[in-house]
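Now for my pick.
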Amino acid sequence: MGVEMNLKSRIEKVIKKCKEDGTYIDPTTGKKCIKAASKIKYFIEEFMGDIGIKTNIKSFDDYYIGYTEIKNIDGLILSTGHAKVFRNKPNSFECAETFSLSRALSFFGVMDDNITTKEEYDIIGIPLERESADVIKHPKVQDRLINTSVKHIIEQICKAKHPTRLHYLKNVFFAEEFNVAITKHPAVYKDLMNNYDTRMLQLNNTGAKNNG
């Protein structure tokens, strides 16, 4: 099965396995996260041969910077991730590698409410609460129903933190929904594209300011 076929269901399969390993809640924000180790393990199991991973670590005096690219078989970058870990942290080199890959996976869609993983919370000393198995196995019906709603798509577009993630949402993760909108619901498609273009402009302006 090619990576383009049923990509969304394959990502959801990976997320489900990750949640079975444990879902953790930040008590201050209420956001849920999963383990980086689970994300990497199940992603490789599901996508090996279809998607490639390239990670590079840069070394500085006080810290490491990890950078990871996730690419399809044609070399197209689907998502990227960065992570900065100070050398005085345990296993700092390995953490920079793991966290950058985890971030790239988050932007690829392998995440819960939070792109930050349990291991990242652990390294900065923020305690999390583990969600009970009953809640994980029996989500609220309305949570499942909004997965492909227009409102949900727009929310994800507005939350995108990087142009790569925004591009991925439109052209990969919600590609089917965009195609249906443009062929059957032009007003909805226009609304989606207005939100997409607005968010892309915001991200590009932010990047220009940071680089300026």
In short: Strands lie at 24-25, 32-33, 51-59, 63-72, 77-86, 129-130. The first helix runs from residue 7 to 21. The first strand starts at residue 24 and ends at 25. Residues 1-138 form one domain.
